[in-house]
Design brief:
The protein is an alpha/beta fold. The chain has one domain: Histone deacetylase domain (Arginase, Chain A, 3-Layer(aba) Sandwich), CATH 3.40.800.20. It is built from 9 helices and 8 strands. It has helices at 26-36, 54-57, 63-74, 91-110, 141-153, 169-175, 221-239, 265-282, 297-311; strands at residues 4-7, 45-47, 116-119, 158-162, 181-188, 210-215, 243-248, 287-291. It has an 8-stranded parallel sheet, with helices on both faces. Strand 7, helix 8 and strand 8 form a beta-alpha-beta unit. Helix 4 (91-110) packs across helix 5 (141-153), helix 7 runs parallel beside helix 8 (265-282) and helix 8 (265-282) runs parallel beside helix 9 (297-311). The structure holds zinc ion (ZN). Residues 164-166, 249, 251, 292-293 line the site of zinc ion (ZN).
């Protein structure tokens, strides 16, 4: 039986955001501490990140933006584009390694070396736009990965399920005119970043390939499972994706400081299992999850452990 690829590396701790920023290196340390204790840890395929070719990042971001990220970091600035997105002298390099590591996981899954994969990377990506940084995100890891899989492996249809508590504005905008990528986001609404109303359904030939599911503050496991069963799973079954990518944020957990959604730790296990059932039917089991948010360290680490456990078949 093939195993789950797990991307985690100390390089990702080097993106320092200051003592009061919620998106801090301790998030990844907490994850790895819990994951290492799991029964299935020794079955995971470890992934060593390498630097990516810039052309892959240029499929989603402008050259001007990529060079601006590099220059802003080199100038020793404390943030990029807005005070939300804190940076340090290593941030450009770490953000490159986040992309490079994630593309490595894509290779392992697409070549059949791994059954599926989890990318425990930072900085996160789903708020990053074509030409500006937002919401703690520098490069849009999952969007770059989706285009990479299409181009390198001749895959036509990819679905992205974004269960981070915030709307994945950058990912939506990358693909809203594209009918080859189905983007599904469920998120607290209204909330940061302000986009993600259910009326945003795609543009031009991408009309109908963006599915936003706004959730009221106070929504819980039952509300989310209803959304999965009534909307998300039917949409995936209709689209028949060849690969499913997940923007796995854990800031919808009831103990998270940045939201008012009331999900339990076990909810993330159930979401993963539901997506796995669909991936079994249409996608040769190919699922790659990318870490986005999640700011209560205990809830984050325990929830990631649930998702990797599910992906590993436990
Ligand atoms: Zn988030």
């Amino acid at each position: 039986m093939k195993s789950t690829a797990y991307l985690w590396n100390e390089i990702y701790l080097q993106h320092e955001t200051g003592p009061f920023h919620p998106e801090k290196p301790k998030r990844l340390s907490a994850i790895n501490r819990v994951v290492k204790k799991a029964d299935w840890y020794n079955d995971l395929l470890m992934v060593k990140p390498v630097l990516p070719e810039l052309e892959h990042i240029e499929s989603i971001h402008s050259k001007e933006y990529i060079s601006r990220v590099k220059k802003t970091v080199e100038k020793g600035k404390k943030y990029l584009d807005s005070p939300d997105t804190a940076i340090c002298e290593k941030s450009y390099e770490v953000a490159l390694y986040a992309v490079g590591g994630a593309l490595g996981v894509c290779d392992m899954v697409m070549k059949g070396e791994a059954k599926n994969g989890f990318c425990a990377v930072r900085p996160p990506g789903h708020h990053a736009e074509y030409d500006y940084a937002a919401g703690f995100c520098l490069f849009n890891n999952i969007a770059i990965a989706a285009r990479y899989i299409q181009r390198e492996y001749g895959v036509k249809k990819i679905a992205i399920v974004d269960w981070d508590v915030h709307h994945g504005n950058g990912t939506q905008h990358s693909f809203e005119s594209d009918n080859s990528i189905l983007f599904i986001s469920l998120h607290q609404y209204p909330h940061y970043p302000g986009t993600g109303s259910k009326d945003e359904t795609g543009k031009g030939k991408g009309e109908g390939f963006t599915l936003n599911i706004p959730m009221h503050a106070g929504s819980d496991d039952v509300d989310y499972m209803n959304a999965f069963k009534r909307l998300i799973i039917p949409a995936l079954n209709k689209f028949e994706p060849e690969v499913i990518l997940i923007s796995a944020g854990f800031d919808g957990h009831f103990s998270d400081p940045l939201s008012s959604i009331d999900l339990s730790t076990d909810a993330y296990y159930e979401f993963t299992k539901l997506i796995m059932d669909t991936a079994c039917k249409h996608s040769q089991e190919r699922i790659i999850a990318f870490l986005e948010g999640g700011y209560n360290l205990t809830a984050l680490a325990d929830s990631v452990e649930k998702v990797i456990g599910a992906l590993s078949g436990y």
